[in-house]
Amino acid sequence: MLKKILIANRGEIAVRVIRTAREMGIATVAVYSELDRNALHVRLADEAFALGGQTAAESYLKTDAIIDAIKRSGADAVHPGYGFFSENADFAKTITDMGVAFIGPPPAAIVEMGDKVSSRKAALRGGAPIVPGTTEFLKSASEISKFAKSHGYPVAIKAAFGGGGRGMKVVHDEKSVQEAMESAQRESKAFFGRDEIYVEKYLSWPRHIEIQLVGDTHGNVVWVSSRDCSAQRRHQKLIEEAPAPALPDGVEDAMGAAAVKAAKAVGYFNAGTVEFIYQDEEFFFLEMNTRLQVEHPVTELITGIDLVEWQIRVAAGEKLPMNQKQVLAARRGHAIEVRINAENPTGGKFLPSPGTITKLTTPDGFGVRFDGGYESGDTVSQYYDNLVGKLIVWGKDRESAIARTIRALEETKIEGLHTTIEADLAILRHPDFAATKHSTKWVEEKLDLSKIVSTTGETKANNDGLVEKSTVVEVNGKRFDVKVWVPPAGGVGQPAPKTRSASRGATQSTATSGTITAPMQGTVIKVLVTQGQSVAQGDAVLILEAMKMENQIQADKAGTVTKINCKAGDTVGSGDVLLVIE
After folding, report:
1. Which residues pair with 245 in a beta bridge?
2. What is d(CA 420, CA 346) in angstroms, rounded to the nearest whole number?
3. pTM (2 decimals)?
4. N or C: which end of the chain has fewer CB within 10 A?
5. What H or E segment, with its residue span, contains residue 526?
C-alpha cells in the first residue's frame, strides 16, 4: 500500500482526497500558492509545501515546483484531483518516470482519451456513435465556418484537452466565429495549459448523461453508475444526479457497455468518466474525462463505494474489490449533488463573486453530505475556480431525494459573498426538473431566473443613513425573526457606509448611464473598443476574466467611447470605472 500521497491540487478536491487517505492510514502532503497559505486543504494535510505565485499558472501549474515538493516530502504517490494537471499526460509521465505512483490513468490513455479529438476516434473503434464534428485540431476560424456551412449553426468550439465546459464556446452565426475561437483558446490555455480546439454540432435539446467507470491494472473495468448532469449554465454543471432518471429500458446498460469498450480500447485503468449526449432515445459519445469528476459523490452515495479509495488501491496495484454484477447489485436509491459556486445569480446573470466567507453553516441530517474546500473566514479568490462546496443528498427515490435536497439547501447559510443557492433552489422546485423535462439548455433558455435576488448577508444601508438589522422578538410567547432599520453603531446622523472604497474613483453604474463599471473583481483580458469609437447599446466593449470564466461587458447605451481607464492585463475591482460612453 502507498505510504504518502501528495495532492497536486487545491480546494474541495484536495480536502476530499486528504480525508480518504487519512482514513486509510496514508500520510498526506499539500501544496499551496501564496493566496492559499492558510487554506483548508493546507490545514488538514500532514505536510505542506509552498509553490509561490498567485494565479494557477504561477503556482499549481508549475511542474518544477510540484516535482520539488514531491522530492522534498518523499511522497510515493501523487493525486492530481481535477483540473490543473489531472489530464496532462506529460505531467503523469514525469511522475511515473520518477518512480512515483500517479493516481490516475496511464499517460498513453490520457493522450488518447484526454485529447477530445482522438477520444472520438477511440469511441468509433469501440462502436459508440459520436456527435458530428471534426476529428483533427482546428488551425483557423475558416475551418469552423466551413463545418458550420455543412452542418448548420449553432456549433460548439471545444478545448481538446479540457472538460467541465471550460474552453467551450457556442457559435450561432458567422460573425462570431473568430472571437469565439480566440476566447475558447484563451480559457483552455488558462485552465488546462493547452489551447488546442475542435468543433462539433451543437444539438437542440439534449440531456448530458455520463458513465462512471473504474479499471485496474489487471485488465478489469467496471461501470459503476450513470449520472445526469443536464442542469447547466454556461456549459457548467449546477446539479447532478445518479442514476440518470427517465431512461428507456436498456439505455443505461448500453451506455455502460459502450463506455467500458472505449476504456478497454486504450488500456485504461483507474477512475474515468465517459460522457454522452442523449436526445430522442439516441445517445452519442461526447468525450472521456480521464480523471475523477466533480460529481463523483452521487455515484458514491448510491453504491457505498469510496471512489477515491478505489483510485488509491488501483494505483497501488490492487485488483478491483468488486465485479460488474456486484457493483450493480449494490446500488440503492437516488442521489443529487448541488454545486454551490461563488457567483451572483441575481436576474439569472451568474456573475463571479469572489470574496471572504464571513459565515458558513452547512446542513445536516439523514442522507446529507457536504464536501467543501472552505470554512468561515476563508477567502474565495478571483484567480481560481469558484466552487465553494458541494451538497450531496441521498433519498430512497428521486422524489424524496429532491425534497431532502431542497430542505438541506434551505439550511445552508453562506455570508460574505454571493452564491448560486437561490438559482439551485429554483431548479429543484421547478416542475420541469421533477418531470425530467429539462436539458442542457433549459436553465438558460426556459427557466425564469429574472426575479431571483441574491444577497451576501452583509448589513445594508438606506438613504437616511439607517442600517438593516435582523433580530428576534416574541409576541404572546411566539418567536418571530424580523428585520428593522436602525441607526448605525456610531449613532444617529452618521452617514450611511459606502458600499466600496472610492480610492480608485469607482462609482456604480446606473441604467443607461454610459459609465461602464466592473461587475466583479477580475482581470481585463481584452479591450474591444478604442477611444472615439461609436458603439450601439448591447455591443461588447471588453472581456473581463474572473474565476477562470470570461465575461463580456456590454455597452449600456449607444454613443461614443470618450474614456478608457483600463488595458489588457489590468486587475480591477467591483465598481471600478472601466470606460465611459457619451
Report:
1. none
2. 9
3. 0.81
4. C
5. strand 522-527
